[in-house]
Amino acid sequence: MQALLRERDDVEVRCEFCNRAWRFDAVDVAGLFSEGNRQAAPPGLH
After folding, report:
1. How does pLDDT run along the chain (46 residues), one tens digit per residue?
2. For the whole model, what pTM was predicted?
3. What gap in Å lies between CA 6 and CA 42, rounded to an integer?
């Protein structure tokens, strides 16, 4: 993931259910993969 972020400014993830694209920058990615940062998905997305 870090190599991809060095090549690009952000990472795009596409939802296979709704086909919506989500973009994450280096700060977002670091937060997503940090220990102890496990959060439940917000209600009502799908």
Report:
1. 677 777 888 888 899 999 999 998 888 888 877 776 566 666 775 5
2. 0.57
3. 30
